[in-house]
Each structure stands twice: as structure tokens, then as C-alpha cells.
Design brief:
The protein is 30% helix and 14% strand. With 539 residues, the protein is α/β, with parallel strands linked by helices. The strands form three sheets. The chain has an eleven-stranded mixed β-sheet, with helices on both faces. It binds 2-acetamido-2-deoxy-beta-D-glucopyranose (NAG) (12 copies). One of its GO terms (molecular function) is serine-type carboxypeptidase activity.
Length: 539
């Protein structure tokens, strides 16, 4: 079976003769290194972004501690959340201009969630120009950096998050998403002015609790009727917090457990008990109703506080007894814990303080900070007082942009795929509720050219191994559906953080958000890949 897969993959990708890999291994001495396989990052000749005004934000791309390559042109620092430049409340940004000519009229924002998580998590572990991911030895260039496609800015927000400074006690005054939107828009005005970006199309992307932030920020921006600064053209939210936990987490948990039984490996008596509880709590019946297309009316959430109905926590507890290295952000992690420079999401041993190093902070114009990737639990002292984004903010952004992507990784056990789909199916936008048919279109991801090399290495098993570097799979990777300005897309092998686990899929989704391809089912190269005849792919 495995051999068949390898063989057919080989037929598609290459024309290697497959003979006994064990015999072949010692004979083959590979001299090629990953760095020779990859074209180096193209260095910008002269920059229109470097001005007397931006000079103080310039980051020396060759002087990032522990990074032994040039990460390219970038600017970082803090800017006030209002017109008062000496306001102590500021947001930290790290801005990477793109060399892609198609990006000249765009700017794309990335936000992590939490609440209270730094967007440098996304930069370092998901989609930045260099990555230092769990279990890897040192930072590496990211062939799937989103900077290949567009101008990216990573922002730590709200105030008090990551490197964003806050006046004493200020974060605790954030009550709701209107406060979040107002502070972000205040910062954004200063950012757009500083880098002379006025008039550009603005895209906002992110994941998890940013599924609450982003629709509200986009909504706040669109409300300003000011396309010089707030020309929002689309948003993408992955594995987003958009509804109630009862729907997002509890109702779909046991169905997901049953689907991934082999991965969880829980005992029969537990499975039997948890299934009968899910039945009694009305979760299966709710799913049947909420996954009917088109939906027949608004749904009433099941009562997840009734006795025995917190099935999700019980599954996690049982799962940790069997697999103590369970990663609820990515179900297929097993022991040992991988080391992790941010201490998240893995609990591995080793330094986990990259952004807490003073040399790193100095190199990236970050204010000296006792940095934690996810911190400040004083945010929203009374909880987030805004309703879930799917109630009004998200539909309003869909109606005003007709360009919203909601992604979901099937291996995420924190915010579950079916929970997100059910939440969307309860939502009304552009005149109707939910989707008219069950999502079934196939999501196609182009093959990474380096897969030939990876396949050869995998078959040959050279000892010592030749480093392969960062790679991504391709082919049919999930299901997608577009209706009335909203695109839903699942990724089979992704966890909570889609760009981290399936970088090619995430890159493809961004190509779609930016309008570089017409849909996610289309088969063809990445828009930034060279066709084998040398011409740039024009898809
Ligand atoms: C950037 O850093 C490198 C490595 O430390 C150094 O050689 C180079 O002079 C620096 N460039 C600038 C413009 O400061
Ligand atoms: C600007 O912010 C500083 C620091 O918070 C404050 O002292 C000052 O009064 C503010 N200025 C204006 C005009 O609001
Ligand atoms: C700002 O950008 C515009 C093009 O978008 C350019 O014409 C103008 O000269 C720039 N202004 C400054 C001060 O760089
Ligand atoms: C934006 O335009 C809408 C519709 O014309 C209007 O209701 C709203 O008050 C305007 N908002 C601002 C901030 O001017
Ligand atoms: C989602 O729900 C449907 C309907 O119950 C089920 O067939 C499917 O397997 C579920 N998917 C996951 C990943 O749990
Ligand atoms: C469905 O949407 C309505 C608002 O349109 C909301 O009141 C209700 O709570 C939602 N149901 C669920 C299960 O989230
Ligand atoms: C949910 O169940 C709890 C515990 O049985 C009960 O106190 C509460 O009233 C129920 N909520 C609803 C909305 O039925
Ligand atoms: C089966 O799993 C449950 C949940 O972890 C546990 O309470 C129970 O003891 C297990 N049964 C056996 C025989 O270990
Ligand atoms: C960050 O560094 C400071 C000293 O610079 C230290 O006191 C603090 O414990 C560190 N934080 C973490 C999470 O390691
Ligand atoms: C997707 O785009 C391709 C190429 O433009 C087109 O042929 C195809 O019909 C489109 N499919 C859908 C489902 O829109
Ligand atoms: C990103 O750009 C580099 C340099 O042009 C290129 O080698 C790489 O293939 C690009 N990545 C993708 C996914 O197209
Ligand atoms: C090169 O290949 C691309 C993609 O297969 C194709 O669209 C293009 O027409 C080819 N160009 C030439 C000059 O053959």
C-alpha cells in the first residue's frame, strides 16, 4: 500500500527508478543541501519604503540573532493608538514589504488570537519569512512565506499584548470589540501615514480568537467610510472563535472523537459512556439539524452546562492519560514533546525565550519587555462584552467586501471543523441563512517543486540524512465551498494553525483572498512558481 502510494507519487512528480531502498542507501552520497535546492530570497535593489520618516524603524535583515541568513527588508517598532504620538498606549508592528509586483497596491495584516497572544507567534511559526518551528534546530528560510505574495504586517494587539506597550492599568479598560476596533484603527492611521500606504487595499488575516477581533476591526474600519486608510477588501479567519463554545466545541466533540478513534486510542467503556452522554445532551440531534443544507431555521444551542455535558474536557482528560503529549491544536502529535522556542504549543524542554532575549528585542526595535507569547490575562476584565462575531460583525463584513474566507484544520480539537461549519450555517448574510448545499468542492494545493527531492531522500534513506528544510504537501487537501461572498475551506492534515501544519494550503488560500486565482478548486501552479519552461505561471 505504502509502496503503491510512493510509486504513484513518483509517477506524478518524477521518473525515479524505485529499487530496493535499503540496498541503495549506502551507495548514494548526496552532496546537495537544502540551501542549494532553494533559490535564495531575492534581495530588493532599492526601496521606496526607506525614507527619513521610516529610517528609525528599519531592521537589519542580516543581524537577527541566531538567524544565519538575510531575512530581507523590514521595519519594526511601535506607533500610538491615536493622534497623540506620546501616548503610552502603542501597538508594536513588524512590516515586511514584498517584491511581488502584484502586491504594489495592497497591505495585509496578520493577527494571532488568545486573547493576549502575540502575532510574532504567526511570524516565527506559521507564515513569516523565517520560521523556527517546534522540534527544529534553528531558524530557517520559509519557502511559503506570505511575503512572497504580499506586503505583510504583523501587529501585536490589543495594547499590553506581546511587545505592545500600555499605560499602567490600561489593558484592563478594554471592554469589548469596539474598543479593540477603535484602538487598532487609531494605530492603523499612523502606520499608513508613516509608510505612505494611503489608498491601498487592506486585507486582514489571522486565526483563533482573531476570528472575533478581525470581523470587528474590519467592520470598524469599513464604518469610517474612508478608503484612503480603511479600504478593506477582504478578510481570512482560520479556526476562528466566532460563536458559542456549545456549538464550536462541545456539540461536535464526540463525533470528531469517533472519527479519529485510532488516533485517540481510548478504551471501549469510555467511548461507550461518552457517546451515550452526547446522545443524552442532544449533541447528535443538534448536529443533524445544524448540518442540514440549506438550514430550515435558526438553531438553539444545546445546553452544555447540564450535568455530564462537558464532554470535551472529559475527552481531553482521558486522552492525556493515554497520550500525555496530546496537542489539542494538532491531534496527531505524540511523545516526546518537541522543543519549542516560544514554549507554545509544545511543552518540550529547552530554551523557549527567543523573543524574550534582549539582543533579539534590540534587533527588532521592540521595547525592552518581559515577553510572553500569550500573556496578559487582565485583558477584558469582565470578559469580552461583544457578542460572537458571527452574530453581526462577520455577516456585515461579508456583505461589504464579498471576500471572506473561513478556514478550518480537521486536526484541530480546540475549535472543531464541524462546530465552525454549524456556526456559519446559523448565520444570515447577503439575504439568506447558511449554505444552500453541503460543501463538497475539492480544495487543490499545487505541489512544492522540492517534493521530488524529498521523495528521493525518503526512499534512499541516506545515512547521515541530507537536510531537506521546510516543505509542504500538495494535491487535493480538503473541501471548499463559496456562496454569497463567503468561502469555506477545510484542510485535512492541518491543526489549529493552518500555515504551521500545511503551509502550501495556507499560501494557496492567501492567493485566493488576494484575487490572484479565481477559486480554490482550480488546478495549476502557485502564482509565484516558475513553469518548467521557465515562464512565470500566469493563473
Ligand atoms: C547589518 O548587519 C550585518 C551583520 O551584523 C552587518 O555586517 C551590516 O553592516 C549591517 N548593515 C547595516 C546597514 O547596518
Ligand atoms: C499625550 O499622552 C501623554 C502620555 O499619556 C499625556 O501626558 C498627554 O497629556 C497627551 N497629550 C494630549 C494632547 O492628549
Ligand atoms: C507616496 O506614494 C505615492 C505613490 O503611492 C508617491 O507618488 C509619493 O511620492 C509618495 N510620497 C512620499 C512622501 O514618499
Ligand atoms: C458612513 O456612511 C454611512 C452610510 O452612508 C453613514 O450612515 C455613517 O454615518 C458614515 N460614517 C461615518 C463615520 O461618517
Ligand atoms: C462532521 O459531521 C458530519 C455529520 O455528523 C460527520 O459525518 C462528519 O464525519 C463530521 N466530521 C468530523 C471531522 O467530525
Ligand atoms: C443562531 O443565531 C441567532 C441569531 O440570529 C442566535 O440568537 C442564536 O443563539 C444562534 N444559535 C446558535 C446555536 O448559536
Ligand atoms: C442548563 O443546565 C443547567 C444545569 O442543569 C441549568 O441550571 C440551566 O438552567 C440550563 N440552561 C438552560 C438554558 O436550559
Ligand atoms: C478507560 O478510560 C477511562 C477514562 O480515562 C478511565 O477512567 C478508565 O479507568 C479506563 N479503563 C481502564 C480499564 O483502564
Ligand atoms: C524574560 O526575561 C526576563 C529578564 O530579562 C526574566 O525576568 C523573565 O522571567 C523572562 N520571562 C520568561 C517567560 O522567560
Ligand atoms: C474555478 O476556476 C477555473 C479556472 O478559472 C474554472 O475553470 C472553474 O470553472 C472554476 N470552478 C468553480 C467551481 O468556480
Ligand atoms: C517564494 O519566492 C522564492 C523566491 O522567488 C521562490 O523560490 C519560492 O518558490 C516562492 N515560494 C512559492 C511557494 O512560490
Ligand atoms: C509554459 O508553461 C505554462 C504552464 O504550463 C503555460 O501556461 C505556458 O503557455 C508555457 N509557455 C510557453 C512559452 O510554452
Amino acid at each position: 500500500m505504502l509502496l503503491t502510494i510512493l510509486l504513484s507519487a513518483c509517477l506524478v512528480l518524477c521518473s525515479l527508478a524505485v529499487d530496493n531502498p535499503h540496498k541503495r542507501a549506502p551507495k548514494r552520497v548526496h552532496k546537495t543541501h537544502a540551501s542549494q535546492i532553494r533559490r535564495p530570497l531575492v534581495k530588493r535593489q532599492e526601496s521606496s519604503y526607506l525614507t527619513p520618516q521610516t529610517k528609525k524603524f528599519a531592521v537589519n535583515g542580516s543581524a537577527i540573532p541566531l538567524v544565519d541568513f538575510d531575512i530581507g527588508e523590514s521595519y519594526a517598532g511601535t506607533l500610538s493608538i491615536d493622534h497623540n504620538s506620546s501616548n503610552l498606549n502603542q501597538l508594536y508592528f513588524w512590516f515586511f514589504p514584498s517584491n511581488n509586483p502584484a502586491a504594489s497596491d495592497e497591505i495585509t495584516i496578520w493577527l494571532n488570537g488568545g486573547p493576549g497572544c502575540s502575532s510574532l507567534d504567526g511570524l516565527l511559526q506559521e507564515n513569516g519569512p523565517f520560521l523556527w518551528q517546534s522540534g527544529t534546530y534553528k531558524p530557517q528560510p520559509n519557502p511559503f512565506t506570505w511575503v512572497n505574495l504580499t506586503n505583510m504586517v504583523y501587529v501585536d494587539q490589543p495594547i499590553g499584548t506581546g511587545f505592545s506597550p500600555a499605560a499602567p492599568g490600561a489593558p484592563a479598560k478594554i471592554r469589548n470589540e469596539v474598543d479593540i476596533g477603535r484602538d487598532f484603527a487609531g494605530f492603523w492611521l499612523n502606520f499608513m501615514n508613516t509608510f505612505n500606504l494611503t489608498g491601498r487595499k487592506v486585507y486582514i488575516t489571522g486565526e483563533s480568537y482573531a476570528g472575533q477581533y478581525i470581523p470587528y476591526i474590519a467592520s470598524y474600519m469599513l464604518d469610517q467610510n474612508n478608503t484612503d486608510y480603511f479600504n478593506v477588501k477582504g478578510i481570512q479567519i482560520n479556526d476562528p472563535s466566532i460563536g458559542s463554545d456549545a456549538v464550536l466545541i462541545q456539540a461536535p466533540a464526540v463525533t470528531a472523537l469517533n472519527n479519529y478513534q485510532n488516533i485517540f486510542a481510548l478504551n471501549q467503556s469510555f467511548l461507550h459512556d461518552i457517546n451515550s452522554r452526547a446522545e443524552r445532551c442532544g449533541y447528535f440531534q443538534f448536529m443533524e439539524e445544524a448540518l442540514t443544507f440549506p438550514p430550515t431555521g435558526k438553531f438553539t444551542a444545546p445546553n452544555d452546562t447540564a450535568p455530564g455535558c462537558d464532554v470535551w474536557d472529559d475527552i481531553i482528560a482521558a486522552a492525556v492519560y493515554v497520550n500525555p503529549c496530546l496537542n489539542l491544536y494538532h491531534l496527531t502529535d505524540f511523545c516526546p514533546f518537541l522543543s519549542d522556542e516560544l514554549g507554545f504549543p509544545s511543552l518540550g524542554v529547552g530554551p523557549n525565550n527567543y523573543f524574550n532575549r534582549s539582543d533579539v528585542q534590540a534587533a527588532i526595535n521592540a521595547p525592552p519587555t518581559n515577553y510572553v507569547v500569550c500573556g496578559d490575562d487582565s485583558l477584558f476584565p469582565n470578559g469580552d462584552e461583544s457578542p460572537p462575531s458571527s452574530f453581526t460583525a462577520l455577516p456585515s463584513v461579508i456583505e461589504r467586501t464579498n471576500n471572506v474566507l473561513v478556514g478550518s484544520g480537521l486536526l484541530d480539537f480546540l475549535l472543531l471543523t464541524n462546530g465552525t461549519l454549524m456556526t456559519l450555517n446559523n448565520m444570515t448574510w447577503n439575504g439568506r441563512q447558511g449554505f444552500s448545499k453541503a460543501p463538497s468542492d475539492l480544495f487543490y494545493v499545487p505541489y512544492d517543486p522540492s517534493l521530488n527531492f524529498v521523495l528521493a531522500e525518503t526512499e534512499n534513506q541516506p545515512i547521515p540524512a541530507v537536510p531537506v528544510g521546510l516543505v509542504a504537501g500538495g494535491g487535493i487537501m480538503g473541501t471548499t465551498h463559496t456562496e454569497r461572498g463567503l468561502t469555506w475551506v477545510t484542510v485535512d492534515l492541518a491543526g489549529h494553525e493552518i500555515p504551521q501544519y500545511t503551509p502550501g494550503a495556507a499560501y494557496r488560500q492567501l492567493e485566493f483572498l488576494l484575487g490572484r486565482i479565481s477559486n480554490l478548486t482550480e488546478i495549476g501552479l502557485f502564482t509565484t512558481q516558475q513553469a518548467s519552461n521557465g515562464s512565470t505561471a500566469s493563473l
